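tool=predict chain=A
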Amino acid sequence: MLLAWFFLNSDVGLGFVKGFSEMFEKLLGFANEGTNFVFGSMNDQGLAFFFLKVLCPIVFISALIGILQHIRVLPVIIRAIGFLLSKVNGMGKLESFNAVSSLILGQSENFIAYKDILGKNLP
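tool=predict ok
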């Protein structure tokens, strides 16, 4: 409850959320510009809207997530925030990891974070 109040009612918390949101808006803007560069005027004509506006940004963000996971930046961030979240609300580490991963990556890219974890933990 205190964490929700911090993020929603304090200037520092709102600044953090706004900065985080602007960072991902900028990433999606880069994905959109890359799509326009590669596919040109198809986007202006309304052709293949689903492919250009939905699938291409997911591929771009997935590649970025893969790079951040390969250099071990993303797992450290997710585990650190998940550890803090598990201490605050009493959830287990796996549930906290899932919550933070969904928050940072989004629902469609969330499963990319589990690709390496499941491969190591399965018998």
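The helical segments are 2-9, 11-39, 42-45, 49-70, 74-89, 93-105, 110-121. The chain has one domain: 2-121.
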